[in-house]
Amino acid sequence: MTTAPPPLVDADWLAARLGRPGLVVLDAGVGAHRHPTVRIPGAREFDLDGALSDPASPLPHTAPAPADLQRELRALGLDDDSTAVLYDGAGVYSAPRAWWMLRAAGFDRAAVLDGGLPAWRAAGHPVSTERPAAARAGNLTVRPRPGLLLDRDAVAAALADPGTAVLDARAHDRFTGAAPEPRPHLRRGHLPGSTSLPFTELLGPDGRYLPLPELRARLATATAGRPRLVASCGSGVTACVLAFAAHLTGHPSPAVYDGSWSDWGRPETGLPVATGA
Question: What pTM, to 2 d.p., does this model score?
Answer without folding.
Answer: 0.97
